[in-house]
Amino acid sequence: AQSVAQPEDQVNVAEGNPLTVKCTYSVSGNPYLFWYVQYPNRGLQFLLKYITGDNLVKGSYGFEAEFNKSQTSFHLKKPSALVSDSALYFCAVRDHMNSGGYQKVTFGTGTKLQVIP
Amino acid sequence: GAGVSQTPSNKVTEKGKYVELRCDPISGHTALYWYRQSLGQGPEFLIYFQGTGAADDSGLPNDRFFAVRPEGSVSTLKIQRTERGDSAVYLCASSFWGLAENNNNEQFFGPGTRLTVL
Q1: Cβ contacts of residue B15 below 8 Å, gap of 6+?
Q2: CA separation for the pair B56, B78 (Å, rounded)
Q3: What is the DSSP string of A78-97?
Q4: Closest Cα to residue A6, out of A92, A85, A70, A86?
Q5: Average pLDDT in the A57-70 region?
Q6: Whole-number Å distance between alpha carbons of A54 and B50
Q7: How far apart are the C-alpha atoms of B88 and B117, rounded to whole Å?
Q8: DSSP 8-state assignment for residue B105
Q9: How far B32 CA sits from the closest chain A CA (Å)?
Q10: Do B108 and A32 lie within an 8 Å CB cutoff?
Q11: Which residues are CB-contacts of A63 (< 8 A; sequence separation ≥ 6)?
Q12: Residues in chain A within 8 Å Cβ distance of B59
């Protein structure tokens, strides 16, 4: 069974400082990893994904994430936080099965990011 | 439309009533998903459609929940005999679908329907 853990319910960071939102995963095969952001009363918006290739993935709004296979982690990062980045962030994983077919996506419980002016 | 749309945005009903929640996916997306998001939680998978057929309904909590997608586009999530515990935001998402090795496409989410069962 696949799973995702976001160990921090909330992350507070000062505007202009770098931010990190943590995510670890567990899958049987190779992972497909995603980050989504959710603003209040809005649906989830896709930020970035890791499929294969470079471990550092760049996404929307200046966010990036680093895939670390040995640590089974996919932490979200941004060099300089903005107040407008304050939102709920979800990490998600899907197991890539070589046999093909559908594999559902499992989401983490979310991390609230608060950027302080 | 440009994105996934869901109606109604809010639904308040009484315990025991029947409700229908509608999802209109992005044009051309053959894959459609329903999730339930409770307060303080991530989206919880309910059901997945590939075209008109439900390819995976393993997330439906019980037989009071049912979903259809008769023409491979719009989908309706149906909840019978609603209970207070069904109160949540119901999210719909859609994505492209292709060969197995390309089944890594991100899902595009609608704004959700907030269901409140009194």
Answers
A1: B82, B83, B84, B117, B118
A2: 16
A3: ESS--GGG-EEEEEEEEEE-
A4: A92
A5: 95
A6: 30
A7: 9
A8: P
A9: 11
A10: no
A11: A35, A47, A48, A76, A77, A78
A12: 104
Determine contact: A63 vs chain B, CB below 8 A: no
For residue B45 the two structure tokens come to: 């998978």
- Using the structure block, give the residue that is written with the tokens 């419980």: A109
Interatomic CA distance for residues A37 and A45, integer angstroms: 5
Instruction: Summarize chain B as % helix, strand, coil (round to 5).
Output: 5, 45, 50
Residues B50-94 pLDDT 10s: 889 888 898 999 999 999 999 999 999 999 999 999 999 999 999
B99 bridge partner residues: none
Q: How many CA atoms lie within 13 A of A58 on its CB side?
A: 3
Q: Are B7 and B113 in contact (CB under 8 A)?
A: yes
- If phi > 0 it is left, if psi is from -120 to 50 it is alpha, else beta; for residue A61 that is left
Range B28-44 average pLDDT: 91
**CA gyration radius, chain A:** 14
Chain A residues in contact with B111 by the CB 8 A cut-off are 41-43
Residues 72-101 of chain B with CB under 8 A from chain A are 91, 93, 99-101
Q: What pLDDT, on the 0 to 100 scale, is given for residue B100?
A: 47
- Pick the more confident residue, A3 or A97: A3
> Alpha-carbon distance B17 to B79, whole Å?
8
